[in-house]
Amino acid sequence: MTASPLRSIGVLAQQTGCSMPTIRYYEEIGLLPAGPRTEGGRRVYGDAAVRRLTFIRRCRDFGFSIDHVRELIGLVDEPQRPCLEVRDIAAKHLAQLRAKLAELQALERSMAAFVCSCDTACAGGPTVDCAILEDLSAIGRGSGVRPASGCCAPADRAST
Questions:
Q1: Can you list the alpha helix ranges (DSSP code H) found in the chain?
Q2: Fewer C-beta within 10 Å: the chain N or C terminus?
Q3: Where in the chain are the domains?
Q4: What average pLDDT does this structure show over 73-87?
Q5: 8, 20, 29, 37, 38 from 41: Cα distances, Å
Q6: Tell me: domain 1-63, CATH 1.20.910.10, correct?
Q7: In the prediction, which pLDDT does 138 show?
Q8: Is there a contact between 116 and 148 (Cβ–Cβ < 8 Å)?
Q9: What's the whole-number mean pLDDT along residues 124-136?
Q10: Least confident of 17-21, 86-90, 140-144, 156-160
Q11: pTM reported for the whole predicted model
Q12: Which are the contacts of 97, defined by CB distance < 8 A and separation ≥ 6?
């Protein structure tokens, strides 16, 4: 069996899609073991680092927090632990994503209502009469936007 090729941090960055500062950060916080140093003092990385860094990047791409990535790495490093632990972390993250999605959908509806209120009440007039600016500065309304009747559905806005 031959030893895996060692690569510089720049090559590791290219192969994994991570930046060099990100790789250093992951080393600093203990997610990625620091590579051994050459005689010249430069760090080099083997295939294990490529796999670990790819795993970390993919976790982050899916929106897992650093703490969750740390938990998942712990599970990778202890392969005898039950898979249900991984599933539970993923299920918790899925619930968080769904909550964020619901918030974004509510925000989208509110923004569509803002645009619609402007279209029906004041579009083309001076900004002093702008319904959007009035709604954004109204005290006591919170995030409640008054949708104008008959417009503001997302499908209505897609055609403009």
A1: 9-16, 20-28, 47-61, 66-77, 83-121, 131-137, 154-158
A2: N
A3: 1-63, 104-160
A4: 94
A5: 11, 16, 21, 5, 5
A6: no
A7: 83
A8: yes
A9: 86
A10: 156-160
A11: 0.73
A12: 63
**Dihedral (C-alpha) 66, 42, 15, 90: value to the nearest 10 degrees?**
-20
Residue 33 CA to residue 16 CA, distance in Å, equals 15
Looking at residue 123, what is its pLDDT? 78
Q: CA-CA distance, 47 to 50, in Å (whole number)? A: 5
| 8 Å CB contact between 89 and 68 | yes
Confidence of residue 134 (pLDDT cuts 50, 70, 90): confident
Task: Judge contact between 35 and 10, C-beta under 8 A.
Answer: no
Helix (H, G, I), strand (E, B) or coil at 110: helix
Contacts of 149 (CB under 8 A, 6+ apart): none
Nearest to 40 by CA among 17, 3, 6: 6
3-state secondary structure of 125: coil
User: Using an 8 Å Cβ cutoff, are 131 and 148 in contact?
Assistant: no
Give the pair of three-digit tokens for residue 144.
Answer: 């409640």
DSSP for residue 129: G
Helix (H, G, I), strand (E, B) or coil at 151: coil
Strand partners, 153: none
Distance (Å, whole) CA 144 – CA 137: 12
